[in-house]
C-alpha cells in the first residue's frame, strides 16, 4: 500500500545502487539455491538469525481464519441496530447492510452468477458501497472494481479480461456501460426501486446464508501493467480475513472505532478501510470522490463523523494540513501509497494519537509492513521514515544476488511471505510463476517478489530504497510507465514516445516525450502543434484513467537511445517553459486576481487567461492552497471541485464571479473581487 524511501545519497551512489539492484534481480531470476523456483536461498550458513527474527510478524489471532462476510453477518445478528456504514446520503445499520446485500446477492443469482463467478462493480462512493460488495460475496462471487472516472473502454476490457459474469452498477453506471459490455447489468436504481420481497425482510441468519470459503476469491484488483495492459491480482477470502485481523491487532480496532473510507475502490487502500472496521463491529465512514479531493470538506467530515482511524496518502495528509485540519487526540493516522517524508511526519505527530507508516503491494493484500512513527524517527537530519517490520501473519526477506538474505545496511530485493500473499495474476500463469514463488523458510509457503529495493537498519527496521524498474507512484496509485507508453505508441501522431515523472514529491507529474511521424520525408518536428498534443491526450483518455495521462508534452526530433537500443531516460530534456506569443493576458478583475494567486501558489512568473491549472504543475494540494486563499480573501466558501471542474483561468474566474454574484444577489459582472490578502 505504501512505499517510503530512505535517501540513497548522491547521484553516484544512486547509480551504484541501481547497478547493484539490476545485478541482484538478474541473479535472483536465475538462482534457485535449494529452494527450487523461489529465488530465495535456504542454504546453510547464509541465513543470519537476526534477519529471520526481524522479518517475522506476530502470530494472527485465533479468529484470523474466519472470513470477513462471516464476521459481518455475525455482527448483524448480535448488534443489528448498530451503525455499520455512514455515507453522504445517511447511515445503514448492520441489519440494513446485510438486508441490502442479500437483495444484491439474489439479483446476481437471478442473472446466473454463483460460486466461482466474478462480478464487476461500477459504483459511486456512498453508504451502499460496502453493502453491495458484501452482496457479491453472499452470491459466492468475487468483485472486480471498475472506476466510474475511467473510460468505458477500459472498463469493458477489464470485464472481458476478468471473465466477469455480470456487472453491478450504481448511479449512472448502467447508462455508461450499456453498449460497451455484453454481460448482464444489475442496475441498483431499478433493483431498489422495486418492493423488497418479504423473505428478505427477515432478520439475517448466518446459518441460512451461503458463505464463501477462505480459499475462494474475494476480489480481483487490476493494477497497471508493464506490458501495456493491466493485470488482475486475485485475492482470496483468507487473504482479506488475515488483513482484517492483522489491522485490528495493530490498531486495537473495536466496535467503538470509526474508520474513514476515502480511497477509490480500484486502489488497494480501500480494502483495509472498509473491511476491518465492519468485521469488529465498528463504523465505516465513506466519503465521496469530491470530498476526498477537497481538504476542507474532508477535514470537516473527519471531525463531524468522529473518525478515529484514517489511512491516507501523504499527498492527502498534506492536503488536510493545508486546509487547516487541527488533528484529534484520538486519531490513529496511517500513511500509505507514497513516501512519507520526515517533515510531514513531524507536522503530523503532535496532531494525532498514533502515526503509522505502512508498506505493501496489491499482491500482498494492501500492506504487509508497518511502523509506528516516533519523534526519534524524524529528528533533525533524518532523510527518510522507516517502514518497519512485518504485520501479523506476514514475514519479509531482503535478498541478495545469490538469493540469500543480506546483512543489515545492504540493499536487496524485498520479498514478502505469509497470509497476505495473493493467489496470483488472473489468466497470467507465466507472470504469476515469475513473481509468486516458494518460501524456503516456511513449509508449503509462498512468497511474492516485489521488485522493490530495501535494506535493514542495524535496529532491525526496514527502509524502502526504490524500484528496480520503471514502476512509479502517482497520487499513491501504482503506474507502469510501459502501459502508458504502449497506449502512446498506438496514437497515429506518434512515431516514438516515452513517459517519465518530473518534479519533486510535492508536485510530481507525468511528462510525455513524442517524436511525430515524418511528414513527406521531412523532419519529424514539422506540423507539431498544441492541437496535436491535445489530440494525443484525447486518444489516451479513451483507454487510460485520467491519472495516467500526461499533461505536459515535449516534442523531439529523435528519441535518445542507449547502446542497447532502449530509451535513455536520463538524457530526456526537462520540459521547456511554454511559449506565450499567441496567448492573452488576464483581462478582468477576477482573472487578474486569480492569476496572482496561481502565480504565488505555483511559484511561477506569469499566468495567461487560457492556462490550465494542472498543466502549469498544479495538483490537489496546490488546489487546496488556491481555494484557501480565495476563501480567505473573498469570504466565500469555495470548493476544490470548482477548480477541478473549471481548470482554465478564464473559466475558473468566470465561475468565481458567478458564485459571488449568486451569493450577493447581483449580476456576475458586478460581483466584487478584491486583491489577495497578504
UniProtKB/TrEMBL annotation:
Keyword line: Phosphopantetheine, Phosphoprotein
Basic and acidic residues bias (residue ranges): 192-205
Listed CDD domains: A_NRPS
GO biological process: amino acid activation for nonribosomal peptide biosynthetic process; secondary metabolite biosynthetic process
Single GO term (MF): phosphopantetheine binding
Domain of life: Bacteria
Sequence ranges of Low complexity compositional bias: 27-41
GO CC annotation terms, alphabetical: cytoplasm
Short name of one Pfam family: AMP-binding
Region listing for Disordered, in residue ranges: 27-65, 192-214
The protein's name: Amino acid adenylation domain-containing protein
Species of the source: Actinomadura harenae
Phylogenetic lineage: Bacteria, Bacillati, Actinomycetota, Actinomycetes, Streptosporangiales
